[in-house]
Amino acid sequence: DSNLALPGAPVAAPIVAVRARPLAKWLAILEVLAVSGIPTQLLVFLVLWWLSNINPFDEAGQLSLEFVAIGLLLDTALIALMIRVFLALNGEDSRDVFIGQRRVLGEVLRGLAWLPVVLIVVTALALAMRAILPGLHTVEENPYARFMQTPVEGVVFGIVVILSGGVKEELQRGFILSRFEQSLGGMRLGLIITTLVFGLLHLPQGADGAIVIGLLGLFWGLLYAKRRSAVRAMTNHAGFDSAQVLQYVLVKALGG
Fold first, then answer.
1. What is the CA 178 to chain-centroid distance, rounded?
2. Which of 21, 30, 51, 59 is the most buried (most CB within 10 A)?
3. Residue 161: left if φ>0, alpha if ψ -120 to 50, beta else—which one?
4. 3-state secondary structure of 133
5. Are 221 and 237 within 8 A, CB to CB?
């Protein structure tokens, strides 16, 4: 019998799955909306505009890299803090929600291993849509390109997209999907809604870009749903965004 132990031998504690307390639907909805990014970004950017000496606009009258970078990093910190508080108030552990039983290093390595595949598939999808459905290419140049005009700007913006994109957005996705599973109709419904919203929020990058990014969001959501760990999706997302920034900076530096 595998449950028998020799006298005096230490007995390993059984691994018990910790289930979160039931959460009222209205409260789950409020928490999801609160960490969605829209209310916090509005708050952060308005406060930053009113209370800081940072000029929100550059010489061309567009939002400056300094203003956007500081605002997004503050929003990332605020979202992470809110998620931590919401989980603690419901008796949940952040590690259970975002890491689970997976080995962190293994998830990181697998997230990086998937990066070339994701880059190839995304490039193929973008080229296919441009060839088959050219009307969806509604934006000629990525609006974020103006934040990467020099290598220094590229480094700064690269740090921002790693933290605000790879880290924050996967924390949001994991938290929101866990709330859907608990109280809002299940993980599948959560995947559908987060995919649609994620794509719509990227419409400034063009209709084709929004579709591709929405599908990327679905992929990262499926990773979380399957692994019950946000680490692989977080690593892959951060790597993807970093690769996009690096590609643009290199092309710009080579005169492209």
1. 15
2. 30
3. alpha
4. coil
5. no
Q: How confident is the model at residue 137 (pLDDT cuts 50, 70, 90)?
A: confident
Asked if 174 contacts 230 with a C-beta cutoff of 8 angstroms, the reply is: yes
CB atoms under 10 Å from CB of 129, counted, come to 19
Question: In this predicted model, what pLDDT tens digit does every residue of 187-202 receive, in sequence order?
Answer: 999 999 999 999 999 9
Q: Identify the burial level of 158 via C-beta atoms within 10 angstroms of its C-beta, where 0-12 means exposed, 13-18 middle and 19 or more buried.
A: buried
Non-local CB neighbours of 174 within 8 Å, separated by 6+ positions? 97, 98, 224, 230, 233
CA torsion, points 102, 184, 198, 77, in degrees to nearest 10? Answer: -60
Assign residue 185 a region: left if phi > 0, alpha if psi is -120 to 50, beta otherwise? Answer: left
User: pTM, whole model, 2 decimals?
Assistant: 0.88
